[in-house]
Automatic annotation (TrEMBL), chains A, B:
<keyword id="KW-0808">Transferase</keyword>
<dbReference type="InterPro" id="IPR015424">
    <property type="entry name" value="PyrdxlP-dep_Trfase"/>
</dbReference>
<dbReference type="GO" id="GO:0008453">
    <property type="term" value="F:alanine-glyoxylate transaminase activity"/>
</dbReference>
<feature type="domain" description="Aminotransferase class V">
    <location>
        <begin position="5"/>
        <end position="325"/>
    </location>
</feature>
<dbReference type="InterPro" id="IPR015421">
    <property type="entry name" value="PyrdxlP-dep_Trfase_major"/>
</dbReference>
<comment type="similarity">
    <text>Belongs to the class-V pyridoxal-phosphate-dependent aminotransferase family.</text>
</comment>
<keyword id="KW-0663">Pyridoxal phosphate</keyword>
<feature type="binding site">
    <location>
        <position position="334"/>
    </location>
    <ligand>
        <name>substrate</name>
    </ligand>
</feature>
<dbReference type="InterPro" id="IPR024169">
    <property type="entry name" value="SP_NH2Trfase/AEP_transaminase"/>
</dbReference>
<dbReference type="Pfam" id="PF00266">
    <property type="entry name" value="Aminotran_5"/>
</dbReference>
<dbReference type="InterPro" id="IPR020578">
    <property type="entry name" value="Aminotrans_V_PyrdxlP_BS"/>
</dbReference>
<dbReference type="InterPro" id="IPR000192">
    <property type="entry name" value="Aminotrans_V_dom"/>
</dbReference>
<dbReference type="GO" id="GO:0019265">
    <property type="term" value="P:glycine biosynthetic process, by transamination of glyoxylate"/>
</dbReference>
<dbReference type="InterPro" id="IPR015422">
    <property type="entry name" value="PyrdxlP-dep_Trfase_small"/>
</dbReference>
<feature type="modified residue" description="N6-(pyridoxal phosphate)lysine">
    <location>
        <position position="191"/>
    </location>
</feature>
<protein>
    <submittedName>
        <fullName>Aspartate aminotransferase-like enzyme</fullName>
    </submittedName>
</protein>
<keyword id="KW-0032">Aminotransferase</keyword>
């Protein structure tokens, strides 16, 4: 018997209630039955995004929504600022370059959170910047950027929009799209929304919808104006990912039953506990700025073969952690707190690290990580 | 109790074995476990497409793959020929126009199958045509186009590619991509592949891959060269639709266990039986050329309110048929034979038509449709 524990920052475990919902016989998408589910899911998404605007659903992965954010609002030659502090910052850069933007970059060490003043100063010197792109949580480094502060800086500028990849922040950290001045917010189904991958979400502010009016890059599948027209009537321009949307309705029911504040608090506590644990074991956290509550990354000892450890844990022990990407490959481990993840999942994640790393010859006081996590978690269980 | 029967041409019923496979706990996509499933699914797809080239999987609906077909192979200003004989022919036209092609059209009455000589003559007069686009089966009219004959015409022309929307023909009618000279073949998960929507497939011939070398339209999410590089190593550029791909592996096992020849024959027999039935009931078939075995469309009596009938059948009787689109709205009914559909599903579909239309006051000999279908089906049951 090998029980499986999915502890990587996406895809995340799907609750049994949602698996069973999605295992129901297929239904047709051009029906009142589906439109009702769609409308309910849509209303729930608005609550999570904290927006009065439509949150559009696209059949595709998060990258499709990132591309949609750019090609629907900007034009070739537009000056854009990308905060690049990890693999997904680089994705904003790559997509923008693909479509001919004039890409300016604030490049940071992996693990950093950007100082909002850097963005403010850039915009003062470059008032012709059409968009600022960033991650809420940079999944590759498990660092969080202060999108509230940056949003408030950009919101006073009528000719600049703020585009946020919230793929591992929305549903994890409270995100007040409208109040903070986020103009385009993007996320996907397989993170905080606890669903299989294949469904992406994107919401635009009124300012961003105005940008769409002058955006000339040809688009068809990812044409957001066409989707808006359809989705306002609780349908989609093209065949939607019916099953995942049916699951989404159940997920949103679960999140709203728990209470969004409690969802965010749960991620915070599991993040705090994991950070305390890996530090008690003597490891250095990867985030040097604000840590994200989506996942916790930490450095392995110098010369340790991280790839072998992650593979052993996944194949022989049953726990799927994430390793590092690009230059951090083999050098870090990332432990997810995303979605359907409780205090005891955190204990399992840390216990797996302790027993596994110990077998791989790493020295630390056995049990120190679990104990440190328990000191935090004990205050919340049974509440 | 209201049992549900999904008889519209997509989404189609998903076999229980596949629903249960997809209800298993989520797995991570960057693992040997998933890559093994991916590789097996990929090998199965090649058998259905009859191609030695890769069949790429994209997280998106069929329209995403249609757009990918165009933007990866063609350039703005390219002369393209679209065979427009229904709603999905129009989609080729719309996507091509969106990306600036010089769109030439062979426009046909809805229900017709194109005469391949029309395409041949066009290409003789327009040797600079870069692509011909068509549907294998035009879902809106249930007519089949002779893509083999057209493929053979185009295959001798090195500067013209043949792009086929096989969304309701691949897996229904035998499709020999390589032998017939199809350069780009596209389909989706929710038709013959008996899966939920959200996964699209696209395969390119060597000739089409050469066209990609000179194609300049910017593309990121739908960049097929990047996908090819990844998918040759049994992974994907962006997070794939994990659940549906796991289901695909099971579907392909089922199709190959049945034998592809038997799959096609089953669609043929259910199509023949349904066509015989609706004609025995006195209705006129919508296809005037070659009927598709994906679905059967027929005209309702003049003045009959088709929309009300389809709604009544779906909501009160439990059978989801499809009505007509655009100018055929309310005037036709389409009955699907796609995917997980056997002889008795055909009987249910026809019996539903007989009892339902009779209740709506349409006159015909009760039982004539079922009897006509049975005369055909009886020769195959138990074989």
């Amino acid at each position: 018997m090998l029980k499986k524990y999915l502890m990587a920052p996406g895809p995340t475990p799907v609750p049994e209630r949602v698996l069973l919902e999605m295992a129901k016989p297929m239904i047709h998408h051009r029906t009142d039955e589906f439109s009702k589910t769609f409308a309910e899911a849509s209303a729930g998404l608005k609550k999570v995004f904290n927006t009065k605007n439509e949150v559009l659903m696209l059949a595709g992965s998060g990258t499709a929504a990132m591309e949609a954010a750019i090609i629907n609002t900007l034009n070739p030659g537009d000056k854009v600022l990308v905060v690049d502090a990890g693999k997904f910052g680089q994705r904003w850069k790559n997509i923008s370059k693909t479509f001919g933007m004039d890409v300016q970059v604030i490049e940071l060490e992996w693990g950093s959170s950007v100082d909002p003043a850097l963005v403010e100063n850039f915009l003062k010197s470059n008032p012709d910047t059409r968009a600022v792109m960033i991650q809420g949580s940079e999944t590759s480094t498990t660092a969080y950027h202060d999108i509230e502060a940056i949003g408030r800086i950009i919101s006073s500028r009528p000719d600049t929009i703020f585009i946020v990849d919230g793929i591992t922040s929305i549903g994890v950290h409270e995100t007040k799209m409208d109040e903070w001045g986020i103009d385009v917010a993007v996320t996907g189904s397989q993170k905080a929304f606890m669903l299989p991958p294949g469904l992406a979400f994107i919401a635009l502010s009124e300012k961003a919808w105005k940008f769409c009016e002058t955006a000339t890059i040809p688009r068809y599948y990812l044409d957001l104006k066409r989707e808006l027209k359809n989705q306002l009537e609780s349908t989609t321009a093209y065949t939607p990912a019916v099953t995942i949307i049916n699951g989404l309705k159940v997920v949103l029911d679960m999140m709203l039953e728990e209470g969004l504040e409690n969802v965010y608090k749960r991620h915070q506590i599991n993040g705090d506990a994991t950070r305390a644990a890996v530090q008690a074991m003597g490891f250095k956290l990867l985030p040097t700025g604000t840590p994200s509550n989506a996942a916790t990354g930490f450095y392995l000892p110098e010369g340790f073969e991280g790839g072998k450890f992650v593979k052993f844990m996944r194949e022989k022990v049953g726990i799927t952690y994430a390793g590092g990407q690009d230059h951090l490959k083999g050098r870090i481990v990332r432990v997810s707190h995303l979605g359907y993840h409780d205090a005891f999942d955190t204990i399992v994640a840390i216990s797996g690290l302790e027993m596994g790393l110990s077998r791989f010859g790493v020295k630390f006081q056995m049990g120190a990580g679990v104990a440190a996590a328990q000191e935090i978690l004990k205050n919340y269980i049974g509440e």
